[in-house]
Write a structure and sequence with these properties.
- α1 crosses α6 and α6 packs across α11.
- Strands 1-2-3-13-4-14-18-16-17 form a 9-stranded mixed beta sheet, with helices on both faces.
- With 428 residues, it is of the alpha/beta class.
- The chain is globular and about 70 Å long.
- Helices cover 27% and strands 27% of the residues.
- A hairpin with a 3-residue loop joins β2 and β3.
- The chain contains 11 helices and 20 strands.
- 46% of the residues are buried.
Length: 428
């Protein structure tokens, strides 16, 4: 079970270099399990026992199965995660030709650790909008192979490199794609049109716009002397998306359950398809009764907001509160913050701990040091919008927001087990 889950995660990460691809990957797996796609522009016809999913902006997805028991009786079981990760996004007019090299200007998306992006084999993926036969269309593309790199400056020319230095995102991050000769000029949109032809057989009249991200082509892997770890890109937070999907597909059918994976968490979630937008409430209002009953259902429901937690790094243990340092491979982490950066309450934490005990899953707690700022998640955002009870949890990781992160190879199984139980259990 553990090895199968870990390999499934590795395959999912490889297929999901961007939020657009992650959403498409989730949709493919849902359709294979019998879930029906609902178009938000159409009238919906849903029924008890039905399985459905909705996408928005091609980068957010909500999957739900309507249980045999009415939500008015049993409430909703919701698992929330996010599809986006910090990365380098290509600018609208990116072409840079300097010193005989073709480079692309990039913008930093989210709170990325920048130093690990240097000296990596990078590829490019995302969504392209184009005109074909007089109509506007969009398509996902992925170059797959390494096409770019951001070389470090040799230490001989930067003797202070190992003392730490500020990276200038404007000047130092544009990746190198090619050498150019003389007056040769590259048109990036023409390159994208060629990729549409190679990858999809599409003959675009003109590339109109795009949302493209660089990513590391090195595959995720189980590593360590005893295979204790999973190393890979975008573990934050595709790990939670994958765990939530697996739990939804393998849980009992009695209760109404949702998996919510939204985009733009790393930049605040305020968008039409982010957790701070209207997508979730609009979907719920289409599948639940009128106003008074809607509130009744929400008050009987529970959201498990699943987003990675900071594990105690052996080289930086003093960055944690001594009593609240999560260990890799020691189970999911309940995240608590008195200032509501996490939406966990004593009741919701107690319920999640009860689930873990019942499933014999180890469980941990995280509270940030009192002299440090605390990050946040989609938990408080959805809780404040819907009024739903919420517990913020996640698996401990190292190097969060790096181009390559590290998690425990045993923990995915722990999380899947407790989320599967959550989808089928009676709520308090």
């Amino acid at each position: 079970m553990r090895e199968e889950l870990n390999q499934g995660l590795i395959d999912f990460l490889k297929a999901s270099p961007t939020p657009f691809h992650a959403t498409a990957s989730l949709a493919l797996r849902l359709e294979a399990a019998g879930y029906v796609h609902l178009n938000e522009r159409d009238t919906w016809h849903t029924e008890a026992g039905g399985r459905y999913y909705v996408t928005r902006n091609d980068s957010s997805i909500i999957a739900f199965k309507l249980g045999r028991q009415s939500p008015l009786e049993g409430g909703l079981r919701i698992v929330g995660a996010h599809t986006d990760s910090p990365c380098l996004r290509v600018k609208p007019q990116p072409e840079l030709q300097r010193q005989g090299f073709l480079q692309l200007g990039v913008e930093v998306y989210g709170g990325a650790l920048l130093a690990p992006w240097f000296d990596r084999d990078l590829s490019l993926a995302g969504r392209v909008t184009f005109r074909r036969d007089g109509k506007v269309e969009s398509q996902l593309i992925d170059f797959l192979v390494p096409i770019a790199i951001i070389p470090n400056l040799a230490i001989h020319l930067n003797r202070e490199a190992n003392q730490g230095w500020a990276i200038n995102a404007q000047n130092e991050l544009p990746p190198i794609l090619a050498q150019v000769a003389g007056d040769e000029r590259y048109d990036f949109r023409a390159l994208l049109a060629d990729q549409l032809g190679r990858e999809h057989g599409l003959n675009a009249d003109a590339v109109l716009d795009y949302e493209l991200s660089f990513y590391d082509t090195q595959d995720a892997a189980v590593i360590g002397l005893n295979a204790d770890f999973i190393a890979g890109a975008r573990l934050d937070n595709l790990l939670s998306c994958f765990a939530g999907l697996h739990a939804l597909l393998h849980s009992a059918d009695d209760e109404t359950c949702l998996l919510v994976c939204t985009d733009h968490e790393e930049v605040g979630s305020s968008s039409c398809c982010g957790a701070d937008g209207p997508m979730l409430e609009q979907v719920l209002r289409r599948i639940l009764p009128g106003d008074e009953d809607f509130v009744r259902v929400i008050q009987k429901s529970l959201l498990v907001s699943a987003d990675n937690a900071h594990g105690v790094h052996p080289n930086y243990a003093d960055k944690h509160d001594g009593n609240h340092g999560p260990k890799l491979n020691a189970g999911p982490v309940i995240k608590v913050n008195s200032n509501q950066r996490y939406a966990t309450s004593s009741e919701t934490a107690g319920f999640f701990r009860h689930l873990c005990l019942a499933e014999e899953v180890p469980v941990q707690s995280f509270v940030v040091r009192s002299d440090m700022g605390c990050g946040s998640t989609i938990g408080p955002i959805i809780a404040s919008q819907l009024g739903v009870r919420t517990v913020d949890i996640g698996l401990p990781t190292f190097a969060m927001h790096s181009i390559r992160e590290l998690a425990g190879s045993h923990d995915l199984e722990h999380l899947v087990k407790v989320l599967t139980a959550f989808y089928g259990t009676e709520l308090f």
